[in-house]
Design a protein that fits this description.
The chain is α/β, with parallel strands linked by helices and 257 residues long. The chain has one domain: 3-Layer(aba) Sandwich (Rossmann fold). 48% of the residues lie in helices and 15% in strands. It contains nine helices and seven strands, in the order E-H-E-H-E-H-E-H-E-H-H-E-H-H-H-E. Helix 1 crosses helix 9. It is globular. It starts with 9 loop residues before the first strand and ends in an 8-residue tail after the last strand. Bound molecules: nicotinamide-adenine-dinucleotide. The site of nicotinamide-adenine-dinucleotide has 30 residues, from helix 1, helix 4 and helix 7.
Length: 257
């Protein structure tokens, strides 16, 4: 991709402080975009923003925000517009999960999983879409999960929430194509991030993930940097005819039609 393909564009990345989000922030910055990181880990977000800004020279702002709270996401939108004047790209990446059999989960856990992984996407889109509609321009990339496409042991509620992200994204893609807004979904397989490491430290997570490498044709977990280039591509004009699509990046673990 053209390394300056996003020059002058402004993006918001939720959950950009670490893991996949951090790699996405870097990829967008490398492509020339300004980036606003919206993350509940405010201190980590500030550190990430400062490090990437120093390395790449692009403008990166960090805002402490909880995606489950609509007012927080309105605050992120307003801060972005104040500093950069427009929002061209929205990446809904913030997510959270714990592995356990459905019957061991509790309604409180359902609320947390659905709140972060699904409602967070609704809140952010609700806050940002009117601005994109008014400019007749925008690219939204939502990070779902391969579990949403094929199910995944120990991730019943998470898989459901991530599947909701796919259905929501396709509907918004249809509703806002007339506004020149494209909406696409990326479904990672297993990615080596702090979240995956936390899951692997728990007994059930260890049991489920222990033998999974045998089923990954490319024989490794993804690095966050394996996911990020697709985000930068989908955000760019090179993808101007791509909307409502779901792409897995999973080393071949699943090959959904
Ligand atoms: N790691 C994987 O194997 C994997 C696989 C499939 C999908 N995903 C998805 O990729 C995305 C990134 O995951 P990751 O592995 O990098 O996770 P991570 O925990 O390493 O990073 C997630 C970031 O999101 C932030 N975040 C969490 N809850 C938030 C909230 N309520 N408000 C604002 N920020 C919040 C965290 O502070 C963190 O900085 C998530 O949507 C996740 O579900 C990850």
């Amino acid at each position: 991709m053209n390394p300056s393909g996003l020059k002058g564009k402004t993006s918001i990345v939720t959950g950009g402080a670490r893991g996949i989000g951090r790699a996405i922030v870097t990829a967008l910055a490398v492509a020339g975009a300004n980036v606003v990181i919206a993350d509940a880990r405010e201190v980590d977000a500030q550190a990430t923003a400062a490090e990437i800004q120093k390395e790449l020279g692009s403008r990166i702002l960090a805002v402490g925000a909880d995606v489950t709270n609509l007012q927080d996401m309105e605050k992120v939108r307003d801060a972005t517009l104040r500093d950069f004047g427009a929002i061209d790209i929205l990446v809904n990446n913030a997510g959270w999960d714990r592995l356990m059999p459905f019957l061991k989960t509790t309604p409180d856990l359902w609320d947390r999983v659905i709140g972060i992984n699904y409602r967070g996407v609704l809140n952010t889109c609700y806050a940002v879409l009117p601005h994109m509609v008014s400019r007749k321009q925008g690219a939204i990339i939502n990070i779902s999960s391969d579990s949403a496409r094929v199910g995944s042991l120990g991730e019943a509620v998470y898989s459901g929430a991530k599947a909701a992200v796919i259905a929501f994204s396709k509907t918004i893609a249809r509703e806002h194509a007339r506004d020149n807004i494209r909406v696409n979904v990326i479904c990672p397989g297993l990615v080596d991030t702090p979240l995956l490491q936390e899951i692997q430290h728990e007994e059930f997570g260890q049991k489920i993930l222990g033998s999974i490498m045998n089923y990954i044709p490319l024989k490794r977990f993804a690095k966050p940097e394996d996911i990020a280039p697709m985000v930068a591509f989908l955000a760019s004009d090179a993808a101007s005819y791509i909307t409502g699509q779901v792409t897995s990046i999973n080393g071949g673990l699943t090959m959904a039609g």
